[in-house]
């Protein structure tokens, strides 16, 4: 059994999970419905096919020597539970429950799939995966592959092994390119290195901790459409727009006009990256 190093992104997510063992913040959970009578045996074959094709779903993390490693378990056919439901709310309740299940991170599966079936024979899939093996793009890619195989079991689906990405990152860390990148940033900050800062909260220094909270804001559809139209006009992505708004907010809070943000985005630039089920995170600096 070959063991591989974790990527930088995987290490970050794993350490976060180990520091928050009872939380499920690292889960990515979702569902989709097939709006016609479902052949669940055929759907099970489709899911098994995708898991067989994509080694990232078979990722296992272990502690080897003095560090965490990952290996890819050989594919074994598996059964999938079917839960009978009556309403969409029933599906959402199951999805919410799955999303709050905490994965055991070492030597255990890092994804869980169940089928749901309505009384009229329609139904679908609820899938819960840990972020350490996937990202939002992976969810969409996996659904597309599952349904492609479900509709045509003779189809050929091109996929790429995750371990190749792991090797690529390892090679980069010991390449001349990373030396060039380091020189670029060293030259970029030769006159002044921006100080790191945090937005002040209500806690005083004696009581500060790493505990945080977050909340979601639903933007009205018409506002989103206006933002997208504006982005098209000035030829920027929505990600750049929202990051710009965030930087304005932080600048106001910190009372500075000089600000450097470094964040992580899922940027898949090549055909190979777009067709690999895995977590793809790259640093994005503005």
Task: Tell me what you see in this structure.
The chain has 286 residues and is an alpha+beta fold. The protein has two domains: 4-161, Chloramphenicol acetyltransferase-like domain (Chloramphenicol Acetyltransferase), CATH 3.30.559; 218-286, no CATH class. Helices cover 40% and strands 17% of the residues. The chain is built from nine helices and nine strands. It has helices at residues 8-19, 40-53, 88-99, 136-151, 162-173, 176-188, 221-234, 238-254, 271-274, and strands at residues 4-5, 27-34, 59-64, 67-72, 82-84, 111-117, 123-130, 262-265, 282-285. A hairpin with a 5-residue loop joins strand 6 and strand 7 (123-130). Helix 2 (40-53) packs across helix 4.
Question: What are the main properties of this structure?
Answer:
single chain, 286 residues, alpha+beta, Chloramphenicol Acetyltransferase, 2 domains, four-stranded mixed β-sheet, three-stranded antiparallel β-sheet
Task: Please state the average pLDDT score.
Answer: 85
Percent of residues in beta strands: 15-25%
What strand order characterises the main sheet? Answer: 2-7-6-5
| CATH architecture group name of the largest domain | 2-Layer Sandwich
Can you write the helix and strand succession as a string?
Answer: EHEHEEEHEEHHHHHEHE
Radius of gyration: 22 Å
Which descriptor suits the 3D outline? globular
Find the CATH topology of the largest domain. Chloramphenicol Acetyltransferase
- In whole angstroms, the N-to-C terminal distance is 42 Å
Q: Structural class, from helix and strand content?
A: alpha+beta
- Could you name the CATH homologous superfamily of the largest domain? Chloramphenicol acetyltransferase-like domain
Low-confidence stretches: none
